[in-house]
Design goal:
By secondary structure, this protein is an all-alpha fold. It is built from nine helices and no strands.
């Protein structure tokens, strides 16, 4: 069993330090996946909070691949959030979305815009593989599509991103 599986087992036994380790390790990758699906920081944070609350209060028996389990849960919850989303945007929420500043914001915005221009499935494949550090077989399991389709869609997406970003990838 890998480290994530061990932590999930310890969480089932009430080990809070295992939960903290799991949270610190997985919050970034899971948040990225959820954000790419919801396209909304506030909703992504809400989904992430619900994911970790579920893990903390009712941890499941770790599966053979806990990483796939966590990313599949994140993806499904993000898709549920998108389906339930109101079509209008709150003005304060829109303003907060614009106010995230970093030193390399222009480059990050170019990359994010390029990724957002991809079709939904290709965006999820790229995000799960790169940000989630999942193997293509694991991505295929999460998305419930054949491995060959994942490989083909990933290659197509990377070519498209190279064109959009001017060969920077």
């Amino acid at each position: 069993m890998n480290e994530l599986g061990e932590w999930l087992t310890c969480i089932r036994k009430g080990d809070k330090s295992a939960f903290e380790k799991l949270y610190e390790t997985m919050k970034g990758p899971l948040y990225t996946i959820v954000l790419r699906i919801t396209k909304n920081n506030t909703q992504a944070e809400d989904v992430l909070q619900v994911i970790f609350l579920k893990i903390y209060f009712s941890p499941r028996e770790p599966s053979s691949n806990p990483r796939v389990y966590l990313f599949k849960m994140a993806r499904n919850m993000a898709l549920d959030m998108v389906r339930k989303r109101k079509p209008t945007t709150d003005l304060e929420e829109a303003e907060s979305e614009r106010c995230h500043h970093t030193e390399d914001l222009p480059q990050k915005m170019d990359i994010e815009n390029a990724i957002q221009s991809l079709p939904e499935r290709e965006r999820q494949i790229v995000t799960l593989h790169i940000n989630g550090e999942l193997k293509f077989r694991e991505v295929a399991t999460i998305l419930e599509i054949p491995l060959g389709t994942v490989l083909w869609a990933y290659q197509k997406a990377i070519k498209q991103l190279r064109i959009i970003l001017g060969g920077a990838l």
